[in-house]
Write a structure and sequence with these properties.
globular, 8 helices, alpha/beta, 39% helix, 209 residues
């Protein structure tokens, strides 16, 4: 990433953080993946119970491995044969780690889900939610953020999971009703009624999809 893009992202992040504050959410800005990891670990106290969905951004900054190897009660759904049990335990966790499929410049988070375990945990359950969101996911408004979630994130994730959906063949959303669709539940987080619950770490890098 060149210096002009980094500078633009810093300025944009200031606007996004103000938007989050107006929505009763807290925003942070990390210049690097390493800074983002440090911020996340400062937010999550040792001994806390922590769950997550399939968060590529958390893995890419090293947070997933830090939770596995640290002094945390990490609910690791990938390490248990009973994924439903892990998902249900996550609803009562102290912290939930997620990313966003897209986010607006004024702080609205967009997430599209197949099984709804991720969007339901974001909406209610865990005491705190920590988002890891890279600056390439920031969009001007809700319409463009929704288009990014459906036409960028969803096709890539469907390909990653080896699913048979029209978007895996076309690379774009076909508004399908395929049995394999991962666009089953759409969550728009525009405000948090619980002050201090939602924290968003913006990262000046490209992470996830």
């Amino acid at each position: 990433m060149n210096e002009m893009t980094k500078k633009r992202n810093r300025l944009l992040a200031e606007r996004v953080i103000k938007g989050l504050e107006s929505r009763n959410m807290t925003g942070y800005y990390a210049e690097t993946r390493e800074e983002a990891l440090q911020m996340a670990l400062e937010l999550i106290p040792e001994g806390a119970s922590v769950g997550m969905g399939g968060c590529m951004s958390a893995a890419e900054i090293g947070l997933t491995e830090a939770l596995r190897g640290g002094n945390y009660d990490f609910i690791d759904r990938d390490a248990t044969p009973n994924k439903r049990e892990a998902m249900l335990a996550t609803y009562d966790a102290d912290y939930f780690i997620s990313s966003a499929n897209a986010m607006t410049e004024d702080g609205v988070l967009i997430n599209v889900d197949g099984n709804a375990n991720r969007v339901s945990a974001i909406a209610q359950g865990p005491r705190y939610v920590v988002f890891i969101v890279s600056m390439n996911k920031i969009c001007p408004d809700v319409d463009s953020a929704m288009k990014r979630a459906r036409n960028v994130a969803a096709p890539i994730n469907a390909q990653r999971f080896g699913l048979s959906t029209p978007c895996t063949r076309t690379g774009a959303c076909m508004n399908c009703k395929s049995p394999d669709t991962i666009c089953c539940q759409i969550l728009i987080t525009r405000y948090s009624r619980h002050e201090g619950r939602i924290h968003v770490i913006l990262v000046n890098d490209e992470l996830g999809y």
